[in-house]
Specification:
The structure holds two protein chains of two kinds. By secondary structure, chain A is an alpha+beta fold. Chain A has a single domain, classed as Folate-binding superfamily (Folate-binding fold, 2-Layer Sandwich), CATH 3.30.2270.10. Chain A has two helices and six strands; from the N terminus they run E-E-E-H-E-E-E-H. In chain A, the strands form two sheets. A four-stranded antiparallel β-sheet of chain A has the order 3-4-5-6. In chain A, strands 1-2 form a two-stranded antiparallel ribbon. Chain A is globular, with a radius of gyration of 14 Å. By secondary structure, chain B is of the alpha+beta class. Chain B has five domains: 115 residues, Roll (Ubiquitin-like (UB roll)); 187 residues, FAD/NAD(P)-binding domain (3-Layer(bba) Sandwich), CATH 3.50.50.60; 188 residues, FAD/NAD(P)-binding domain (3-Layer(bba) Sandwich); 192 residues, 2-Layer Sandwich (Gyrase A, domain 2), CATH 3.30.1360; 99 residues, Beta Barrel (Elongation Factor Tu (Ef-tu), domain 3), CATH 2.40.30.110. Chain B is built from 23 helices and 49 strands. Classes of the chains: A alpha+beta, B alpha+beta. Chains A and B meet through helix 1 of A and helix 18, strand 38 and helix 22 of B. The complex binds zinc ion. The site of zinc ion has 7 residues of chain A, from loops.
Chain lengths: 86, 974
Amino acid sequence: MRLTCPHCGERDLREFAARGSAVVLSRPSAGASAEEWADYLHIRDNPAGEARDLFYHTPCGLWIEVTRSTITHAVIAARPVREAKP
Amino acid sequence: MRLEGRGQIDRDHPVRFTFDGRVIDAFRGDTVASALMANDIRVVGRSFKYHRPRGLYSAGSDEPNALVTTGRGRDALPNVRATMQEVWEGLDVTSQNRWPSLTRDVGAINDLFSPFLAAGFYYKTFMWPRAFWERVYEPLIRRAAGLGRLSGEAARDASEKAFAHCDVLVIGSGPAGLMAALTAARAGADVILAEEDSHMGGRLLSETDTIGGLSGPQWVGSVLNELTALPNVRVMERTTVTGAYDQGTYGALERVSLHRPPGRAPRECFWRIAATRTILAAGALERGVAFPGNDRPGVMLASALRTYVNRWGVAPGQSAVVWGNTDTAHRTARDLASAGIHVAAVIDARADATTTGDWPFYPGGEVLSTQGRLGLKGLQVRHGRREFTVWTDCLAVSGGWNPSVHLASHIGSRPVWRDDIQAFVAGPEPVPGMDVAGAANGIFDTAGCLADGLRAGNVAVQAIGLETHSPDLPDAEATPYAITPLWEVEGKGRAWLDLQNDVTTKDVRLAAQENFRSPEHMKRYTTQGMSPDQGKGSNVTALAVLAAATGATVAATGTTTYRPPFVPVTISAMGAGAKGKGFAPERFTPAHAAAVELGAPMIEAGLWYRPSFFPLSGERVWRESCDREVRMVRESVGVTEVSTLGKIEVMGPDAGTFLDVVYTNTMSSLAVGKVRYGLMLREDGHVMDDGTVARLSEDRFVLTTTTAAAAEVMRHLDFVAQGLRPGLNLRTVSVTEQWAQFAVAGPRSEALVRSILDDPAAGVLPFMGCTEASISGTGVRVFRISFSGEKGYEIAIPSDRGEALWRLLLAHARMLGGGPYGLEALNVLRIEKGFLTHAEMNGRSTAFDLGLQGMMSAKKDFIGKALAARPGLLGETREQLVGLRPVGAARMLTAGAYLFGEGAAATREAQQGFTTSVAWSPTLDTFLGLAFLVNGRARHGERLRMVDHMRNVEALVEVGPPCAFDPDGGRMRG
Ligand SMILES: [Zn+2]
């Protein structure tokens, strides 16, 4: 698998560290309920289709949000998490 | 026998090799298979289950019978297809699955018991009694299983792996592949042309048709001349593309030097090729017919026979019968006749077929059975109502062609059935970016393949945004393809499908009868297609037999799942370079060589190597050195390298605010020139890592992490900075490799540090202070921190000066009665003090468990704060960090042992905690342990049993605080 780092271009998967769903970008604010925290930490959608996942490009230190298809494994888009933040 | 004047072999270059010890004469250009045929060796292997004598069946990588072993000992390669192995002087070939010899094989007795060894035999026989599974049945089955044998010796690490990228990958170099490659290459695309054979050309090397007025090999030569002259083309022969993977990635196995005597070149190379577009032009594989006795040596595929005759100038005998259901039969008869081989009969399954040749012709006929023990002698033929014997030593059979859709089907696409050609073809764009062309696309005439290659080439060229420059299509053979289904002939005797696994039509019908009716179930039940050839020649025929048995069409029956690899790939090629030192990178610290010079044994710490201890002459065991080093630090001064610690700089106006988010304690309030111990949690409330934070200037901090967590902490900081606090103005950078760092510890550490600094006054630092200074003009960072409990410093210097500083520090330390200490002493010193490593920060422990709850700021939010406050992570039920000392007769403690109440049984249910780190403390003259104990902080003074079931160690221990030495820290603050 290859991913396109917005800094460095197309690179082999072995240069990246994966961190799962991009929902971890939406951290609950201080004072959130236990349920909100549990959702944030443990509950994940399991979509058949487009998924947004986070990868860290180790050589340059950029966190990117990758949109990919869990059905075809096609990588659709990649952008820095700074720009992905809602 | 060898045919004079035919073939593309080099008769001026004789080559001699051995087969089962017998010297075989061959020519350069021969394969082991063609050379065996030239020497009239008919039995080339024994089948897997019944040890049936078998002969050459094909001429390519689909060969089911001629599996041999090349080489001896550690260089032995089992299951090499004789049809793919080129001969070289001195090549050592042995046959397989026979004892004592191919023609007198004791294992053939299995054949007599074949009525009892039908499909499902193993499942039915080896079920009961259950106690026999592991001890009796498994060894029995294992001894009988497998075709070739491994030598049992470690293979030489003689292969390589490599990566390649291209615009267009063309797989296969027949007419379609060559035309596709030429079209893409002329348009300027970067092209890789991969061909499994030793020579480019595919069927063009085996047929006698002309193409553009040239012979097949001549035309191939002219195209290759153009391709190899182009800088944008890489031509790879002996390279089998083995698998299709996501994103246009393909695995390919190149047989780099297996075709010549061993030298310095790698044996094989496993390629990963990333292609924007791929053209699958892998051709088609001819299939046989399942009829009684069809495994007799001498029965072979018609296309293979043409290859042997036309390409290698060899024939299996004086006469041949040809049987088929397409015009391929007539083409074969013509080629045989022109080579001087007697055509004893041509049998065409098509009742309306005609022939042009001067040979007995039986339209609508069929072969009923075969005769001959170690080789074909005669055939029983039916024509109309007449049955008769034809004496011949070769039968060329063709049941039609199966397009090679394997690679098109590797990532989920299913092939689709076409009635008109009685075969499966790939669906549209079966793999993203892949186009299928030529015979692989169900086109079986040369002109059609050329045109389809041109089409696919242009599609690829347009897809990558180049202008097309179509080459002219040469004139070529254009016979329409007409086929009538011909799968099997039922009759008395076994009709074989999978020749490698000895699967018969009867086995498939038995599977259907026992309700294993789906192709996948039939496959598992009969082992059809589960041998090294993966059923290349037999699967589709087996599906047709299954379809007939279940009353379904072949189309509705479907196929089993195609999976990589297309041909067997040696593990040594896939793992090339990954043995020994190649298994993982090695990271060496700046003073590594200097530590090795002192005789320090190295210990692996992740990828790093760190000195365990520095032995002096007369010290016999590590403990003597370690104890001395601990005493040296406590009494004078010791120096150790800590360059492996992660070092991260955080810069910017918001750096302090940012650090408040990632550390539990407040860092923004840290004064310039000060250091603070910091604790980081994961968001789930457990401890991630600890370390120090030094503020070098208002907007510049340098952090240390533990060696093990350096990469994880770096990722975490970047995640928080970019993903959770993108509004903060700061930058992070790892400087682990830029700075060498040394700890100087002991009562004389200040004297040592002052003696080497350009300005000795800079060495007068308060505890937890830091400053920039210089040594011999080189800028250094000095931190007054301690991991030993003694007055201590850490000095960081740019890496290229690390070794020089280490030597300087040692020289000065020795003048003060000190010296170097290693990782073992460092560990003892920190256990005496109750300081933490990842043995304690084990991923399950919280700040509360470690007694560090006071470091969790109540005034701010930080990562992990909310969830560290969960009820289950606090309170008496938690296992809390404590210190242990032995108090009974047994003095030794071990790490990983369990703790139980003094009078309690040492059972799982009674478990109270466990030890994490232990050490002999020369300072306190006792073993010390750190442990997690349920409600441990309230149990100081209590006595417990420590039981190590694994090492059979038990001791009575007393619980105390984690810190066993200098609890108020007076020595450290100094
Ligand atoms: Zn990057």
